[in-house]
Specification:
Elements lengths: L1 E2 L2 E5 L2 E6 L4 E7 L4 E4 L5 H14 L4 E5 L5 H4 L9 E5 H24 L5 H9 L7 E3 L4 E5 L2 E6 L11 E4 L4 E5 L18 H15 L7 E4 L7 H23 L4 H5 L6 H15 L4
Parallel strand pairs: 5-6, 6-7, 7-8, 12-13
Antiparallel strand pairs: 1-2, 2-3, 3-4, 4-5, 9-10, 10-11, 11-12
Helix pairs in contact: 3-4, 5-6, 6-8
Length: about 280
């Protein structure tokens, strides 16, 4: 079903894809309550999300999950208070202790995008930093939302050190955040390239454990189109090749650009990926 921009991925699980940053936001509807996965970048964007949500359901948003600490997933949090806001403990700590740095880096990035990004930069400046008030450790958690079970999984370090994956077993849907990237290369600025393939393997394992007969779970990435398990497996192979090349290059003392130019990624992305992998191998992150 596609009603007013919301795509139903499974019973009571909806996703809306926004043109801004090609972001996908998911809503999980229970009997008397709703859970929202991520809150967009600014108060204005969060207001638009709330208005769109009201076209879908009158249910109150009692729970929010931040998949990770990047600005485009968390700076709308203020609009959803007093809902419980859940995140991995490292995501919550990042926003609590370094929220202004998250905002400043986002504003610098937006301003570098030219006049078309001016409104985003202004909105970022006005967005309060609201850190999650409910935290999840590496073992994850299980929530009850309006009579539905919603699982929060930390599959390991990957896109960041505090990624959460949201699984809705009764709907056959997994919300993967930016651990899975569709329509653009993976983003490595805060990533752990040596660990990321294993995190995706864990997502694949979770999906297979949820599969019922021939119905494999749908996987909703943080950006782009909804994907299947085979897509995640392909991305894991790509990231495994990145990790292997970085390990070999580091052992041989090769400069980052020499290793990066051989990867199946855009040049600028490859350099960041190898640089982060080298930092891991050197024990700097």
């Amino acid at each position: 079903m596609d009603g007013d921009g919301w795509l139903e991925l499974g019973p009571g699980v909806f996703r809306r894809r926004y043109a801004a940053l090609d972001q996908g936001i998911c809503a999980i509807l229970g009997h008397e309550a709703a859970l929202l996965v991520d809150t967009r970048s600014t108060l204005a964007e969060a207001d638009a999300l709330l208005a769109d949500l009201r076209h879908l359901t009158p249910l109150p948003v009692t729970h929010v999950v931040n998949t990770h600490a990047h600005f485009d997933h968390v700076l709308g949090n203020a609009r959803f208070v007093p809902a419980e806001i859940w995140a991995h403990e490292r995501c919550a700590r990042r926003l609590r202790d370094h929220g202004e740095q998250v905002r400043a880096e986002a504003m610098t990035w937006a301003r570098a995008g030219g006049p078309g990004m001016a409104a985003l930069a202004e909105g970022l400046a006005q967005a309060p930093i609201v850190a999650p008030d409910h935290v999840v450790g590496d073992d994850g958690a299980v929530l009850e939302v309006g009579g539905r079970v919603v699982e929060l999984h930390h599959p390991g370090r990957g896109h960041t050190d505090g990624d959460l994956v949201v699984a809705i077993p009764d709907a056959g849907v997994i919300v993967a955040g930016d651990l899975v990237e569709e329509g653009a290369p993976p983003s490595f600025e805060d990533a752990f390239p040596l660990d990321w393939p294993g995190a995706l393997d864990a997502v694949v394992g979770l999906a297979r454990s949820m599969a019922a007969g021939a119905d494999a779970p749908l996987i909703a990435p943080g950006h782009g189109a909804v994907v299947d398990v085979a897509f995640v497996e392909r991305q894991a192979r790509l990231l495994r090749a990145v990790a292997a090349a970085a390990r070999a290059g580091h052992a041989e003392g090769k400069p980052v650009p020499d290793v990066a130019e051989r990867l199946d990624l855009p040049p600028a992305v490859s350099v960041v990926a190898v640089r982060r992998a080298y930092a891991q191998l050197d024990g700097r992150i």
